Predict the structure.
Amino acid sequence: MKITASKLNTFTMFKLPSAYLCGVRTKYIDSETCVVTVKHRWINQNPFKSMFWAVQGMAAEFSTGALMMTKIKESGTSISMLVVKNEASFTKKATGLIRFVCKDGYKIDDAIKKAIETGDGQLISLKSIGTNEEGIEVSNFVFEWSIKVKR
């Protein structure tokens, strides 16, 4: 079964309810790119009337993690995945609809191939950039994922 944006949104509702309640939604996914949006609302704001940093982090992480899940599923191998490191920077108040885009799908294939061939865990860094409705960057995140073939 192919992973689609709709299936990811259903997954979020049942497995990541806090992200779902905050409005995190997958809009697009293919083998190289994943787009996740979240709208600034009362439930996800901070005291400064912009989006709470952790909500941005949920959306950004999901844009990278959805690509990882897709590639792992395509490999046909049982592989575990875990975030081991995260870096973030915030450049503008996040208000309105924020769009997180990860275009690093191409990096995942090599890491999965190495993990399968060697049996060793692999580390891979994936970047997600958040922009507002005007296309201005509001934040960017880098997640370092660890993957390992389950034996």
User: Anything to note?
Assistant: The chain has one domain: 5-149. Helices lie at 5-15, 17-22, 53-75, 105-118.
